[in-house]
Amino acid sequence: MTAKQLANKIKRKFKGIISDIHEFRGELTLEVSDSSQISEVCRYAKEELGFDYLVDLCTIDNDDDTPRWTAVYHIYGYGHLQHLRLKTSVSEEDSEFPTVTTVWRTANWHEREAYDMMGIRFTGHPDLRRILMWEGYPYYPLRKDFPLEGKPSEMPDVAFTDPIPLEGGPFVTLAGGEDAAAREPRVRKTE
Amino acid sequence: MKATEIGYNSKIEGNVVHTRLDSAVSWFRKNSLWPMPMGLACCGIELMAVGASRFDISRFGSEVMRFSPRQSDVMIVAGTVTYKMALAVRRIYEQMPEPKWVIAMGACASSGGMYRSYATLQGVDRILPVDVYISGCPPRPEAVLEALMKLQNKISKEPHIADKKPARDRGLILS
User: Within 10 A of A57 (CB to CB), how many other CB atoms are there?
Assistant: First the structure.
């Protein structure tokens, strides 16, 4: 079965909450308008359609656009060797997705990372703790409103952070620069 | 036996060396620097190469990598020190007995390297007194040996007997 046929099956099963299929360079994406249904969509994709592998689960901060958070699920099936991408969004007020750890256990650490870096919660997650930063670190560093140089923080006997010296940076490489010297990372102001 | 006989007494000639206690102690110390391999990133792999046959750190008396800080003399901080790891590195340093030295191996340990990031300590010298810095990303094993020789050179010039105060009182540890 092709990815398009599988995507259409999902569309028929969850009428009304699944967008049209976006196709870009041979990759298919479905948007799920009701984020509270994402775990049900995922369960159907795994159990009925053979998407037995959650390749990646990542989240996007849409900054000033609404809704603020988007979760992206890259799924794959070892039986049919087809890829599919599912997207769903939630507002900043909610900041919550239902967990898919009950579908793919590998989602456990992915969701913990999203929680750690973005501050998005996953309801029903069995162990929603920070995974990279330490418990008690007060910020969510991959949010768009978090400064590149970081913020000071202090947890006695655990860890501390200091803002880093950017020296006028960030330093950006110039892709396609004429030679290695021109491509060197330098302070480059964007227009 | 009179003291002046030592150099001329054929029975013991060649077995006696005149020196100062300070130089003798520094000679003992610098030729038996047991490293605490603080391998935190890719530099740790180069550090392993330094210990292996091709580069062979044992030529400098430092082959005894100790994974217990209580038995080590020089901490080689090899790799990126994250803020999450920083206080653990400092605790391990504090567990090392005096006298002790620190080598910051590579760009990350020296300055944070390419990680101008909220998560990375910008140089281990912010929490430890570093004796020798090694440039490189990662440094060649020869550079680590060079650093070790530089440290040996430094130790041979340090006063050992006169200055018995621990590093903390010499202002070497930033509290």
Answer: 24
Q: B56 Cβ partners below 8 Å, 6+ apart? A: B63
Strand partners, B82: B120
pLDDT tens, position by position, A140-158: 999 999 998 899 999 998 9
Cα distance from A63 to chain B (closest Cα, Å)? 19
Beta bridge partners of B49: none
Instruction: Calculate the CA A113 to chain-centre distance.
Output: 9
Q: What is the pLDDT of residues B50-68, one digit of tens each?
A: 999 999 999 999 989 989 9
Of B83, B112, B116, the CB nearest to A161: B83
DSSP assignment letter at B59: G
Q: Provide the whole-model pTM.
A: 0.82
Residue of chain A with shortest Cα separation from B84: A159
Domains and CATH numbers, chain B: 36-157 (3.40.50.12280)
Q: Find the angle CA(A148)-CA(A87)-CA(A3) to the nearest 5 degrees.
A: 130
Q: Which domains can be identified in chain A, with CATH numbers? A: 3-146 (3.30.460.80), 147-191 (no CATH)
- Please check whether residue B91 touches A, CB under 8 A: no
Are the beta carbons of B118 and A161 separated by less than 8 Å? yes
Question: What value of ipTM does the predicted structure carry?
Answer: 0.81
Other beta carbons less than 10 A from residue A124's beta carbon = 13
